[in-house]
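FAQ: What does the model actually see?

It sees only this:
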Amino acid sequence: MDKSEILKKIQHGLIVSCQALSTEPLYSSFIMGRMAFAAYQGGAVAIRANTPSDIKEIKKTVDLPVIGLYKVEYDDSEVYITPTMKEIDELMEVGPEIIAMDATNRLRPNQQTLAEFFKEVKAKYPNQMFMADTSCYEEGVTAKELGFDIIGTTMAGYTEYTKGTKLPNYDLMKRYVDTLNMPVIAEGGIWTPEQLKAALDLGVWCAVVGTAITRPQNITERFVKGI
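And it is asked to produce this:
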């Protein structure tokens, strides 16, 4: 699929994030593959997934576009979503239709700026689609200027300067939609179908839901807190 076909396929739909870190009970590429299949059966239009091994398994299991990322922590940076070219290269080997990366204004490993990093990435992989995981409006503007294909609200509330932001961040979604004139993916804090519909009603291209669907330990905790 080319970029326009990918965008058309995911428009107005639900993307399900199927991720489990090594510290979580569902940590397994096989399990994430089955989780993706369950999401597919439920009507998801795409899957967001972490690590090359999970993406490889998911792509064997479902015929849906994949937003791939690679979470790796480095000692000299707070950026952990696809932080360096090493992670980009490894993701490219398994062929996600879209690659997501942290697009906040924080420095990456080796004190590299987003602008420096993304220039290298685009030069190496000019035909790949990239999604900017941002936390505030200024970062979205920068991401558009740098040439990202999609802007997401993924990091709102997760950077030091956006802590305490109410999620879902409808204000940021609407501002992006009204001013950037490019596909915006709503992501972060969507727990209910009503919240999902509210995001889509703002005019976002599509939306991602993760924890509310694919992290049973968190879902259970919410029910326990209710009693």
